[in-house]
Amino acid sequence: MPITDRPVAYDHGGVALEGTLAYDDAASGPHPVVLVAHTWAGRTDFEIDVARKLAKAGYAGFALDLYGKGVTGTGPEECEKLMTPFLEDRALLHGRLQAALSAATNEPEADAARGAAIGYCFGGLCVLDMARIGADVKGVASFHGLFNAPAVGKVDKIAAKVIAFHGYDDPMAPPADMTGLADELSKAGADWQIHAYGATGHAFTNPQANDPAGGMFYKEIAASRAWCALEAFLEECFDHA
Q1: Exposure string (b/e) for 114-153, b if CB count within 10 Å is 16 or more?
Q2: Domain extent listing, the chain
Q3: Percentage above 70 pLDDT, the chain
Q4: 202 in Cβ contact with 40 (< 8 Å)
Q5: What's the alpha-carbon Rg for the chain, to the nearest Å?
Q6: What CATH number belongs to 3-237?
Q7: What is the distance between the alpha carbons of residues 61 and 35, in angstroms, rounded to a whole number?
Q8: 64 within 8 A of 8, measured Cβ to Cβ
């Protein structure tokens, strides 16, 4: 299966951005497109690898960029500095997510009518916001994401399917936040699921996460279960048999 990936340049608000599109060059297209929203560190090889994994499953994976071409954080202080402006200005975040969606769906390998989005940590919040603002996607999947809702841009009715993969012991999103998300999604009439994994913390899909004292550690069985559930979720979103 010859997986191809290439950079995709786009911009928003005068900022040059660069995503990465991955797809199976041998399969007839266009393919359903799945955006991959990055962690607070920015678009790295982790998100590109996820996009390639999605391409192997028959999708066009698009690792989006929120910070700017080549901009990534190398430590907690830098990462927080990059992420914070978007948490403080959710309208800015929403505009940039819409720009990424437009860039991805305008590629010839992508089926613009069949889009979805997945995200990790900060990216999990991003894709939940895509559902909240009524972005044109069939579904969104949050992996150990942040759950706090924006004060702006929300639609009354969430049309996209929503699934969240959550470590029950995640210190960044305690159980009260999880039930708060469930209440929010129910109020908006969403088709939602939350998969909570016991004895599991933040960043459980990242093999490099190794801070048990801080509640951040890799959990292979939870990561595997979440990916299997994601595959079924995407098939449902795109009406696959």
Answers
A1: bbbbbbbbbbbbbbbbbbbbebebbbbbbbbbbbbebeee
A2: 3-237
A3: 99
A4: no
A5: 16
A6: 3.40.50.1820
A7: 6
A8: no
